[in-house]
Amino acid sequence: MIIARYLVKEVFLTFLAVALVLLLIALSAQLVGLFDDVARGSLQVDMVLQIFGVRILSLLVFILPLALYLAIILALGRLYRDSEMAAINACGIGTGYILRAVLGLALVVAVLQGVLSLQLSPWAEHQVQRLTAVAQARGDIQGISPGRFQEMSEGSGVLYVEEVNREQNRMHNVFVQQQREGGQSIIRARSGHQMTEEENGDRFMVLESGYRYEGEPGQDDYTVVEFEKHGIRIQEKEPEITSRKHKAIPTIELWKEDKRGYTAELQWRISSALMCLILAFVAVPLSVTSHRQNRYGKLAIAIVLYMVLTNLLTVSRNWLSDEKISPWVGLWWVHGAVLLLAVILLLRQSGIRHWWHKGATSR
């Protein structure tokens, strides 16, 4: 029992460290993508943290199985290299005992993974879609990207701002082109800001010190108006999610609907929890190493195996969604193949009688 706790502790601490590193890498990539959306003007700065926060739940679904898999290989591999595993084996403790100890931790992670993939991740994806729709519907100054031509709300015109001071709510060197009945309206202004009426909440872009040109291109009958202030009402759109992605649909809804796309998504979510257990089976024999072996040799093999597994699952999900394979086959054949590989590796490592005997005598 003491040895089991020691093994679980070593794997668990490594699991936390690996998960934290993978999460930081994934979050950095997500943050770069979000700020790229801000630069393009499709997302407001004040919404970055909201989307960033809920996306953590979605990222954990991909991180936890991989982190557990690598943690088992790294933690047990260190015990083999430091000869601690040799001392444990000398006490009559074999692979079966080690496997049961590791599977206990893997079962806990699999339950957490199930909650994330079946409940929390779909909710997080729905929130991301909702926040994105809200960002697209807003015409806030936070969404104006300086030095770029941007389409105004509902395609009512084109806006170009040379410089934006978000803290002071000021714009400098503003160009606006709008299509109106009877011709076009082009406005050039030295500066501008946005204001909201307290009575009804309507928002306006107030342009200052500029000119408005109205008329048909190529015609002589156009007018030029100089102004000190000119207001343009910002048209607000209702946030609308045009199409729900499968990963944002609640699990109970996937279960009720008899659609191949829904079935594929449901099996994918269940598979992510099963991966924690199956990868633990594979990781135990892959962790076996010696002093002379390269420290990261087995780790490279493990990563390649993980990439093959995830690619096969992705291909199977696409096949199931396209009705190329039966739901009874679905993604399950991939898990069966990997489980068979794990059994072969375990038997090859110590032999079935030797493995089972040591596992039984150490209870």
From TrEMBL:
It comes from Thiohalophilus thiocyanatoxydans. Component of the lipopolysaccharide transport and assembly complex. The LptBFG transporter is composed of two ATP-binding proteins (LptB) and two transmembrane proteins (LptF and LptG). The chain crosses the membrane at residues 52-76, 97-116, 266-287, 299-319, 325-347. InterPro entries: LptF, LptG/LptF_permease. This is Lipopolysaccharide export system permease protein LptF. Belongs to the LptF/LptG family. It is a multi-pass membrane protein. GO terms for cellular component: ATP-binding cassette (ABC) transporter complex. Keywords: Cell inner membrane, Cell membrane, Membrane, Transmembrane, Transmembrane helix, Transport. Part of the ABC transporter complex LptBFG involved in the translocation of lipopolysaccharide (LPS) from the inner membrane to the outer membrane. It is found in: Cell inner membrane. GO terms for biological process: lipopolysaccharide transport; transmembrane transport.
